[in-house]
Design a protein that fits this description.
The chain has about 575 residues and is mostly helical. It contains 20 helices and 15 strands. A 3-stranded antiparallel sheet has the order 5-4-6.
């Protein structure tokens, strides 16, 4: 998606009648309500603009909650007290008090408020100002945007209040409980949002490529159905024994729409994460960004969610958060080109540039993890060293590559904070195809799933020469033979491994583990091994000795303290939290 000129409606001051020269000062930065609602297209634009109204303390891409909380990465920064995200990576100390949780809740509901206001404007003036056809399309777009924010809230907090345009019109927000609807009922409502989008949107909007379309709605519907197909989110009632095959069929049905669309695999894996390819055929829906030179503004429409995640001393202000784990690096090991399912984590290994050995690696490692001795984001003029880690004794020496551009291309904003014009993928093609493969496996259509997974592995195999030729001697990747897909259990293992490698450091690993019902076993095993990590004699990650994940509690994040006590008694806390 690419929406240009994402601007909030220009501020219009109220006209005032003079009654007192001392106090009669017209307010600025305020827009008259009637005037705002009379401009429904601008109100829809404000709802789109909210997609990028993020900040490192409330990142809408959820990287602290989907990655730092998983076995894919460590928090990073100057130490465990740098930001409030440390409890998310060790789980054992997580409470409802971190301000980051409260900010995220509040900001996502601000986005929903914009959607509600846009729907009111469209109801009052849509047909009059836009015509019946365009007004109907805008309504469908807003339902997509509202569904997007509600999906994130439901993913994070489970028990949430449902505040729609009717609640807004009645001004009854402070009377809506968060336990009014069950988890299933809330998902039904989110699905309804995307169904309305799916029914009302064109495949390719005539007014440009910047808006939600029918294919994106289909992909989101597949994601919703896949999530609830495994159960209710808690391990005791989630996993293979709770699979809803009707929902899995819905995943296949909606991904059929994506398969037959204009979207597809970008030829080189590395291109997916370069800004010049950010609206390629791989991108089904993404939050748009811009550089200050693109739009002639001071800061550009930068990605402020990832502003902490630049490499230390590689950028003018890289704060070195979002650090890949040794566990993740080990997962990229191959033997005869295939994953080392049984002994991949028996030893901690890493490649060293110019010293290829017997251990081979999936090429996606070199597109995902920055490592000392290798070029940073493919550029030999910028070589990573051990000096590019801020606190190696705590977080090691690896850095994340996907959310940053190449160093030679410069920074979108390089003051005391730093940000890049890197889109945030919400739905990309290989992610959706892996959702499809997951559903096919559970429906006993194993050969079709194998074809999808091998197509993705083939793309990885083809992604060496263009960007990572310097790592050619380290890489070996093969397609899965038929024997790996002779049973559902074996096929699941392949699918889950592929999903981890393909989507590593893209903010969703924890939510995958939760969906499959294996978060506690995976994470508690990870805590035991990762605390023994070392690189070239430097040990790190020892704080994991205090980490523990508790099933029946930690599956969802706690309702923020400030929300619980804003209107006492209105909201209930998720189970297991005080």
């Amino acid at each position: 998606m690419k929406l240009k000129n994402i601007l909030i409606i220009p501020a219009i001051a109220f006209a005032a009648t003079a009654c007192n020269d001392f106090i009669d000062v017209p307010p600025t930065g305020v827009i008259d309500g009637d005037l705002a609602y009379s401009q429904p297209d601008n109100m829809v634009t404000t709802a789109y603009a909210a997609l990028g109204d993020c900040w490192y303390s409330y990142p809408f891409n959820l990287w602290p909650y989907g990655d730092v909380s998983s076995d894919d990465c460590l928090k990073g920064g100057s130490g465990t007290t740098d930001t409030g995200y440390h409890p998310m990576e060790i789980w054992s100390t997580l409470t409802s008090s971190p301000g980051e949780l409260d900010e995220l809740w509040y900001r996502l509901y601000c986005n929903i408020s914009r959607c509600n206001r846009a729907l009111v404007a469209l109801e009052q003036h849509g047909v009059e100002k836009l015509g019946e056809k365009t007004a109907a399309q805008r309504v469908a777009e807003v339902h997509f945007l509202r569904g997007h924010s509600y999906f994130k809230l439901l993913t994070m907090f489970r028990q949430i209040p449902w505040i729609d345009e009717e609640v807004f019109k009645n001004n009854s927000q402070e009377k809506v409980r968060n336990d009014e609807f069950t988890y299933q009922e809330l998902f039904d409502k989110v699905i309804k949002e995307f169904e309305m989008a799916y029914e009302g949107l064109p495949d390719s909007p005539a007014d440009g490529g910047g808006r939600a379309n029918r294919i994106a709605a289909a992909a989101y519907l597949a994601k919703c159905y896949l999530t609830i197909a495994w159960g209710d989110g808690y391990e005791a009632s989630n996993g293979p024994g709770f699979i809803n095959t009707d929902y899995m069929k819905k995943v296949v049905e909606y991904t059929d729409v994506v398969v037959s669309s204009k979207y597809g695999y970008l030829e080189d894996y590395g291109d997916i994460f370069l800004p010049e390819h950010k609206n390629s055929k791989e991108s089904i829906f993404a939050v748009q960004t811009s550089d200050r030179l693109d739009d002639n503004t001071k800061f550009g429409r930068a990605n402020w969610s990832n502003m902490l995640n630049g490499c230390w001393q590689m950028w003018s202000c890289g704060w070195d958060f979002h650090k890949p784990s040794q566990n993740l690096v080990n997962a990229f090991k191959t033997r005869n080109g295939l994953p080392m399912f049984d002994d991949w984590n028996n030893s901690n290994d890493y490649p060293v540039n110019g010293m290829p050995g017997a251990q081979k690696w999936d090429p996606r490692l070199f597109h995902t993890v920055g490592m000392p001795s290798f070029p940073y984001k493919y550029e030999t003029a910028y070589m990573m060293t051990k000096d590019n880690s801020r606190t190696p004794n705590t977080y090691g020496y690896y850095t994340s590559l996907k959310e940053v551009p190449q160093r030679s291309k410069g920074e979108s904003y390089d003051g005391s904070w730093q940000a890049f014009a890197m889109n945030d993928y919400v739905l990309r093609y290989s992610d959706v195809m892996l959702m499809r493969a997951e559903a096919l496996i559970e429906l006993d259509r194993l050969p079709e799933a194998r074809t999808i997974i091998n197509d993705i592995r083939q793309r990885a195999a083809n992604s060496i020469d263009k960007h990572i030729g310097y790592a050619r001697d380290f890489c070996e990747i093969s397609l899965y033979p038929q024997s790996y897909f002779n049973s559902k259990d074996s096929a699941r293992k392949c699918l889950r491994w592929e999903r981890r490698l393909e989507l590593a450091m893209e903010n969703g690993r924890y939510f995958d583990l939760r969906r499959w019902g294996i978060a506690s076993t995976t994470l508690n095993r990870y805590f035991e091994t990762e605390q023994n990590s070392s690189y070239d004699g430097q040990s790190y990650a020892q704080y994991y000795k205090d980490a523990h994940y508790t099933p029946g509690k930690n599956e969802f994040y706690p309702i923020p303290y400030n929300q619980l006590y804003y209107v006492p008694g209105l909201y209930v806390q998720n189970k297991g939290y005080n």
